[in-house]
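Justification of computing resources. Each target in the renewal requires a structure prediction run like the one illustrated here; the chain below, 289 residues long, is used simply to show the kind of job we budget for.
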Amino acid sequence: MQITHTIDQTRSHRATLGTVAMVPTMGALHDGHLSLMRQARTLADHVAVSIFVNPTQFAPTEDLEKYPRPLERDLELCREVGVDFVFNPSVDVMYPADELDVVVDVPALTGVLEGAHRPGHFVGVCRVVAKLLSIVGPNVAVFGRKDYQQLKVIEAMATGLCLPVKIVAGETVREADGLALSSRNVYLSDEQRAAALSLSKALREAEGMISDGVLDPRAIETAMRAQMQAHHVTVDYAAVRGARDLCELDLINTSMMPVVCLVAGRVGATRLIDNVVVGEGTRSPLARG
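Resulting structure tokens:
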């Protein structure tokens, strides 16, 4: 497995390869990341992974400094799943001191939900993803549905900028009890982890309500919020939106438009997000058994 740290090294190595599928990450890899890498293996001749904790997507009050960085373990996991090369740049490589700020944004998608609670987050995400795609030059890039709004933003950015890369979605990987895998789960105590299950329980309740014919998105949002609050989660949002463009809905009609139910909140000091899409015609990832 080749490991590169500079832009020139990465582009030189990329030039020796055939088709490449890329999985951008911030490291602290778990089975969710590994599933994306295995999916990438089916999509191209070679698999590339980036490991870079991007400072521009963290607010000053967020967990940039304590974000886990187990690099050697991450590299070993990449080897185990057959990754061909890893791009692991420093902050100075990605953001040289003499570089002027460049803003890439999708305002229709970035000002709501996560964007409303984390101002500037998606500007940082768009900037770093645009750079990573330019440096590595993949034919395909795989992003997880766990960060659903991010996935939609990146799809729109790639389309709007005519980037020569296909964006592919990978399914959310969950523990047996429904908890979505996240690098931040390591922060949770046993008691907090039990409380964190209320996010997936809220989504399962929303699915059930939609299946039972509830058409009012506000009623479903209220139920999701109540489920989380009952487990002492500080709720940032519990929302039902159009799955394609995160539009607000007056009524739910999944035969006309799939919907996505999204939740975010804090369990202690740890902020978690989750979502489920309803109406795509596939079995729910939250279904048991």
